[in-house]
Amino acid sequence: MVHGSVGNIGDPDVFGDKLFFKDTGSFKVDFGKLPFLLHHNFENSDLFSLSRLARAAEQLIQKGRGHRFSAHRAQDKINSGWVSMPREEQVAAAVESIGEQNAWMKITALNEADPAYVEFLNTAIAEIDGLLDHNFKQEVTHAQMTAFISSPGVAAPYHIDHEENFLCQISGEKEVCLYDPLDRENLPDKEIEEFYFGNYDAAKYRDNLKSRGKIFQLKPGVAVHHPSLSAHWVRNGDQPSVSISLVFCTKEIDKRAYIYQSNYLLRRLGLPQSPPGRHPFWDEVKKKSIRAVSKPRPTSFRELIFSGPDNIKAPIRSIQNMFKSVKSN
Ligand SMILES: [Fe+2]
Fold first, then answer.
1. How far, in Å, from the CA of 289 to the mean position of ligand 1?
2. Predicted TM-score (pTM) above 0.85
3. Ligand 1 mean position to 230 CA, how many Å?
4. Boundary (domain end) residue, out of 250, 273, 290
5. What is the per-residue pLDDT for 66?
6. In the chain, which ranges are E strands?
7. What's the CATH number where 119 sits?
């Protein structure tokens, strides 16, 4: 098992006032392709203290976006256990329980809570743009900041995500194991197709290939870049952990997602399909076909990436429900 070393990523004292990320030389080469470590200086911001994050959760709840906040303790959802409690009190209870074992909370889309997070996210996008050769800002189709606050020992099982991600450690430590997203032996096209059609557990952990995972040690001030579809698992150290995830969708990875969705459907019809990138003309046709059945002006990640499959599955589900109700009558 290869370990990522913080010692490889340079001196964090040369940030200056504005940079969130330090260019390590590998940024341009590896961004979007392979995982790598880098420094961040988020600790200079007051947006990521536990109390400020709890306030962001309350702001989301007050705006009617309580679904952006979720909290779990042991095997049970804190929310479901405290169903009679106002949501604002659930936030306080979740923050208090973070020192215990097996508790975590997630605040999705901090940028919907407060304009200060939007400003921070925009600055981060501008700085990433400055570190790359291409115009990243114009490529971005969706950007979001999510806070993960979890107690010692909490782990996230092996999975894949669509978005590009910078997972930035604020306090505590965690281990993140990431795999090469282009390794089709570890992550076959068929599993990616299933993932993009709504089976979020489609990526199978392969014990015989576990040595291909690279473990990165995160501590405060250190971040790891997850390329899109880089399979990963995460395990907290023995202290409570606060991490901020900056996630991005881009035109390129969205197009690839639509091609995989189209391939899923065509393969179900018995038509073998080539993976994205082999036939540019057909790739374009496949992308347009899925976009034609997707939400025309998406306003969320879900709508941007999954509204096509959702719309395709909806009538099938209606018919299934209809048959079920006929059978039960
Ligand atoms: Fe993930």
1. 28
2. yes
3. 9
4. 250
5. 79
6. 2-4, 36-39, 69-73, 76-77, 103-107, 140-150, 155-159, 164-171, 174-178, 214-218, 222-226, 232-236, 241-250
7. 2.60.120.10
